[in-house]
Design goal:
Aldolase_TIM; 303 residues; 4-hydroxy-tetrahydrodipicolinate synthase activity; 8-stranded parallel sheet; Dihydrodipicolinate synthase family protein
Amino acid sequence: MTTTTFEAQRAALADVVAIPVTPFAEDGTIDRDVHRSLLRRVLDGGVRILTPNGNTGEFYALSPEERRTVTELTIEETGGRATVLVGVGHDVPTAVASARHAREQGAQMVMVHQPVHPYVSEGGWVDYHRAIARAVPELGVVPYIRNPSLAGARLAELADDCPNVIGVKYAVPDAARFAAFARDAGLERFVWVAGLAEPYAPSYFSAGATGFTSGLVNVAPAVSLNMIEALRSGDYAGAMKVWEQIRRFEELRGANSSANNVTVVKEALASLGLCRRDVRPPSRQLPEAERAEIAAIAGGWST
């Protein structure tokens, strides 16, 4: 039996990891045609890894059937042009079923959302991810870590049992904690993805990350790609010029505990005529008075 090395998946993670939005039609259902057109736009823009069913895709507001639809549409539209990293989560049976569906559809990896349970022990965190990873040993597995109290040793323990755990989306807003966590887990053992997008990418790259997630990439793929090219070449001054360019947009997304994280992205897309601005509760559309600033930012990026 050959041992899977996941080299292609590891290489794919060291990039701009796009988190596509899920566009809705006027009747509230997923707009399949617009979904495909938005995916084509980011792929044509040079993006090479997509995460359907991520938070920017309103994962927690979608039904199980809709999450399957998003997975299928993304894999079909991608058609081998990019790596697909499918978001899975909720209870273990649901996450396992989603991971197996992703495998059947042809995805290369799954990202496991942070468990949304009020009581998460470190050992229970390992158990949760182990159950999912063992169910799809052929797929690369990427835990999405938002828990600042989780120790790096727990990730190493998980990977000892599950060699398909190959990368981490680290989304704790603390660059020093990230640096320590990565070294405690094994800096070279995993591919480290800065899970808080462009605002944190320069500081996290300086501590060992080689990829970052992005919702902004839905709006302006070239901007995100410019940042990672600068970071790859060690041009931190150049990366910070991009940081300054996207700062206000990301501040709007992050305000009020990220209440409008998805809303701002969809508003920007709506201002460009690319999709409706509709989001699902508990997100909410922006007031009319706040839309102009986002339209101005997005218009400045459009070519």
